[in-house]
Amino acid sequence: xxxxxxxxxxxxxxxxxxxxxxxxxxxxxxxxxxxxxxxxxxxxxxxxxxxxxxxxxxxxxxxxxxxxxxxxxxxxxxxxxxxxxxxxxxxxxxxxxxxxxxxxxxxxxxxxxxxxxxxxxxxxxxxxxxxxxxxxxxxxxxxxxxxxxxxxxxxxxxxxxxxxxxxxxxxxxxxxxxxxxxxxxxxxxxxxxxxxxxxxxxxxxxxxxxxxxxxxxxxxxxxxxxxxxxxxxxxxxxxxxxxxxxxxxxxxxxxxxxxxxxxxxxxxxxxxxxxxxxxxxxxxxxxxxxxxxxxxxxxxxxxxxxxxxxxxxxxxxxxxxxxxxxxxxxxxxxxxxxxxxxxxxxxxxxxxxxxxxxxxxxxxxxxxxxxxxxxxxxxxxxxxxxxxxxxxxxxxxxxxxxxxxxxxxxxxxxxxxxxxxxxxxxxxxxxxxxxxxxxxxxxxxxxxxxxxxxxxxxxxxxxxxxxxxxxxxxxxxxxxx
Length: 481
Description:
single chain; 9-stranded mixed beta sheet; 8-stranded parallel β-barrel
């Protein structure tokens, strides 16, 4: 099978020289640290390609400056990744032979790939499921949980997730249902409607059983939001055209505070419950949930999507609730924006730099994989793009711009890293910086301007200069003091 390589052979050969966690940017004999440089350009001439090293020294004349201060720290990072929807897992499992599947998962999750460290997992059907799967939940038989089973996911979703976790043992998993089983809802349908108040308890049991089943299968859920996009549809009378369930913030607070939170606490599971899981445009929603005296004690933070509003909505929530965390859990590219260069810039600027500078502890894009026809779909987006595209005709895997956007951060910023202070120059050289647990520093820089820019990076009383083409992205790594 022909497969499009994720980056050039030169970069692949050089990948073995990057020893994050041991010797990245280490200079012998206490000399100034050597800075490793990895770059992607909008014209695709460089795709996460290793460049010549830079070296810290003195002086520098560039007027644009990025100051990196590792002593000033912000949020701790959980990871970067995407979602193994039913569609994505089916494509990887059924359309790639074992060798191609191993290569893809290594390129996605391995240390010599981009090291993705976060997966968001639909629990039951979503708008990306195969026709064979349909609108399934884990118990579609009324009116108790005696028929609960996760056999559907054990067929191919859980094996893929287990292999991803074997490839990257630090991988964290977030679970999200798109709907409660139809029989728990006001409209007896997986699309639309609301959760009946009298079924808060059985829905809590359903979620606990789901988390326990995933844990028993070797894929414990680190995080759980109890409802994907609770404002879509906009009311309980609406329809999204795929599994969905409207839920007001008051309803979410009541369900968590009265039943879901206590039952997860009693279960012994370490799963953290997240509020909201919808767009930037409504930061007040998770605020209502965490301010609830019963629900708030069980909810360590909120999840956001990118489709409406501005990333500053994350900071609005954080400023009101500085003791709570934030996760950016869904954003998809698609054919509505087919230009690689524009997508590289926008996604880096708004999701990676913007997301983390606005307090995101993790960033997850939407489908890890879709086919050449943007599917399989189950009533949702008809022109979305995956992190990779799997061609069902010939098994070719194409690595899309999302792969490189994620690679520029996931490969170099490990779970447990902390965001540190760095200067960011809006619409010129924008940046975000991190310090890994081993002291390795990673600085991601985007030239958001329309012209080539030379800039100076200063840290620890030393500096170096670098020139970046318009729209290009660079990650610098070096060993901190």
